[in-house]
Amino acid sequence: MISGSATASHGRVLLPSHRERRPVSTGSNILRFRETVPRQFSLMMVTKATAKYMGTKMREEKLSEMIEEKVKEATEVCEAEEMSEECRVAWDEVEEVSQARADLRIKLKLLNQDPLESFCQENPETDECRIYED
Amino acid sequence: MAVSTIYSTQALNSTHFLTSSSSSKQVFLYRRQPQTNRRFNTLITCAQETIVIGLAADSGCGKSTFMRRLTSVFGGAAKPPKGGNPDSNTLISDTTTVICLDDYHSLDRYGRKEQKVTALDPRANDFDLMYEQVKALKNGVAVEKPIYNHVTGLLDPPELIQPPKILVIEGLHPMFDERVRDLLDFSIYLDISNEVKFAWKIQRDMAERGHSLESIKASIEARKPDFDAFIDPQKQYADAVIEVLPTTLIPDDNEGKVLRVRLIMKEGVKYFSPVYLFDEGSTISWIPCGRKLTCSYPGIKFNYEPDSYFDHEVSVLEMDGQFDRLDELIYVESHLSNLSTKFYGEVTQQMLKHADFPGSNNGTGLFQTIVGLKIRDLYEQLIANKATARAEAKA
């Protein structure tokens, strides 16, 4: 897995296995890990990135909409004149919004952090901090 | 380990007492001057040392995984500032603060559209403010830093940033301005080749309804002129460059999953000793897989050699392939030298801590972790050096 994707990703990752435990007399914890990891395995990770608060859900949707809009806009602007300044700026906006969308996905999926977490602890009564239910 | 400087300032009252404020590490000394009209108090400021690290990469502050690996080497997890603007780009841990340089945009998204400049263009960034604030933080002064909101595209009200022990500035232009460059104690450039960039952006964007293969390609092409003109030239100033290229082990691979990663380390940088394989300054080609270690396809290949990069002497450590199992990683670690680890297996332990991060099984994760350890080493050496210099000055 190189970068986050929305649903599933194949990757070989290193995770210690807790199934086999053989006592090892050497000092280092790392060497103990060596004894417990199985020979070879690949892991398919399917993690669903879900927002906890309404505010985050709204941001996700807004960013996705913006990507669609801005791609359309950029395609139109660049049809008129390729490699013009307007064309470059339009695609740069697409990149900015795509990256913001991906960052939000990474935060939710990899780090299990809703960006509104600390804000919502201080302001639980706001609209943004309503719990999002699927 | 504290630097103390003494200032004399005008006082509102003059009483003879000593107070101290632990948060700002300042000691106020008031002295009574009954004879004269002049009243003054003496301000003693004890500041901690702050080192500044610059990280240049495309896609602004999206390097969350690199940053988290870096901050985890120093201990503690980096989190956004508590209770502030939820769209803040800043990350704070016990020792480290990471600032996103997009916050120094002088033009917001609408301004840039109007002026017809991309975010890559230096005209969209306020380098004077960047220089002033980085300098202030380096000297132990807190700053009110603007926030660039990537969702709305607007500049939000500023947030207060306290001077940390380690300040990381990441973004598109950390080494662009000469004055800011001089403030950096260490700089890193993340150089992703076009093929890998394309593969990563496909993985990043294909799930979005707005995107297609054509739109992703067009976006990369359109940004290329500004990128080559303004961002790419910064790599000549970097102390370490992490170059990410497609693998040579799989013919015609275009998935970008197996990577060839090169760690280009500048020679002669103060407090920075490059990592080497077996014999420093020689040329080594190493395939660890063999009788003692079995690897699965496509295996692992290492290279180490001295080289010249933009007229600088460098050492290049290269890894092609991926790690499948823990013992491959520890086997590789045990053969590398000058890692600046504090104990055997520290690199492996750090990689394991973030096993679910992208790049944990290849050179990107490995070299990011090693760079983190090098920065920790640099910090400790710098602090020790400043302490002895002060002790000598007193004597």
TrEMBL record, chain A:
GO terms for biological process: negative regulation of reductive pentose-phosphate cycle. Residues 63-134 form the CP12 domain. Residues 1-21 are annotated as: Disordered. InterPro entries: CP12-like, CP12_dom. The keyword Endoplasmic reticulum does not apply. GO terms for cellular component: chloroplast. The keyword Disulfide bond applies. Disulfide bonds join 78-87, 120-129. Keywords: Disulfide bond. PANTHER family: CALVIN CYCLE PROTEIN CP12-2, CHLOROPLASTIC, CALVIN CYCLE PROTEIN CP12-3, CHLOROPLASTIC. This is CP12 domain-containing protein.
Automatic annotation (TrEMBL), chain B:
GO terms for cellular component: chloroplast. GO terms for biological process: reductive pentose-phosphate cycle. Its EC number is 2.7.1.19. Keywords: ATP-binding, Calvin cycle, Chloroplast, Disulfide bond, Kinase, Nucleotide-binding, Photosynthesis, Plastid, Transferase, Transit peptide. It catalyses: D-ribulose 5-phosphate + ATP = D-ribulose 1,5-bisphosphate + ADP + H(+). The keyword Repeat does not apply. It is found in: Plastid, Chloroplast. GO terms for molecular function: ATP binding; phosphoribulokinase activity; protein homodimerization activity. Residues 52-250 form the Phosphoribulokinase/uridine kinase domain. It is an enzyme of class 2 (transferase). Pathway: Carbohydrate biosynthesis; Calvin cycle. InterPro entries: PRK, PRK/URK. It comes from the Eukaryota. PROSITE patterns: PHOSPHORIBULOKINASE. Belongs to the phosphoribulokinase family. NCBIfam families: PRK07429.1. This is Phosphoribulokinase, chloroplastic. It comes from Arabidopsis thaliana x Arabidopsis arenosa.
